[in-house]
Amino acid sequence: MAVSDVVAPEYYDWYRPGRLAEFDLILGCGDLKREYLEFLVTMARCPLLYVRGNHDDLLLREPPEGCVCIEDKLYRYQGIRILGLGGSCRYRAGENMYTEGEMSRRILRQKLRLWRSGGVDILLTHAPARHLNDMDDLPHRGFECFNRLMEDYRPRYFVHGHIHHSYGFKIPRLSAYGDTTVINACGSYSFEY
Description:
The chain is an alpha/beta fold. The protein is 21% helix and 24% strand. The protein has helices spanning 34-44, 58-61, 100-108, 111-117, 144-153, and strands at 2-4, 26-28, 48-50, 68-69, 73-77, 80-85, 88-89, 97-98, 122-125, 157-160, 174-177, 180-184, 187-189. Helix 3 (100-108) packs parallel to helix 5 (144-153).
């Protein structure tokens, strides 16, 4: 299951014991409160991997207990290679905001790891890719370097958040970029790998 930006009430406010038992892994795409992430990892009893969103400066100082931050890491889970790149386009001062050049350099620093591992299966980010589920205003613009990353490594999934479904009725939950299935995880979305 992937979660991002908005608390999914069925897994928190209306939670019933066992509701999270079906999941083997939870992916957090950012902008969720520490308490919510801790609740999910406790009740699901499976790993929760996350990246930070543009509003997650507090998680740098107080990370959620029991969760694994995979910012700038290529993390392996049961043979699945997951690359974590959180943050959004820089539109004001903030620790989890990047220019296109800064995000490109973050990806460049992963090249050796990606080569050694033979690529990536899931790209986990907060922001979307440019012209793929993003918007034209700077705060909600995606990164062009994510498109190049998908072209170069063809991950099976690209899972992101940041673009709320309440922003408009034409915001897709699922789309594709070449061989990659793109998932907007705003709220929650379950999928099988």
